[in-house]
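To whoever is on call:

I kicked off a structure prediction for a single chain this morning and the downstream step that reads the tokens threw a length-mismatch warning. I double-checked the sequence; it's 125 residues and nothing unusual in it as far as I can see. Pasting both halves so you can look.
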Amino acid sequence: MKHWLALMRSGDWLTVALGTLLVMSAFALAWTGGRPERAVIRVEGKVVAEFPLDAPRRFSARGPLGETVIEIAPGRARVLSDPGPRQYCVQQGWLIRPNAIAICAPNHVSLSLSGREPNHDSLNY
């Protein structure tokens, strides 16, 4: 039995190359959701602050366990510190995509990024 690569001709390689290029470009276009524009901070589900992502700043949000510190830098934001026991929201690091969210559940604080164009997330599957 011949190896399948020996059966490939130049037109077959061209078709594979064009298909690969098409898939890569479609992937790049489909997964770019634009740039985030604002950081939205909620405590107990209510918006307590909203900041544009154009300048560095810090904001402290008070929840039931204490202060959660949010750090904002141009184009991104993160939870810098939180009094929660497991630190999941701190471990998420910098949020850089629209609709990205970090939830500090024990302290009832959340940070999300919003933009003009929505980005895909796991709920879209």
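Update from on-call: the warning came from a stale cache, not from the record. Cleared it. Sanity check on the structure: The radius of gyration is 22 Å.
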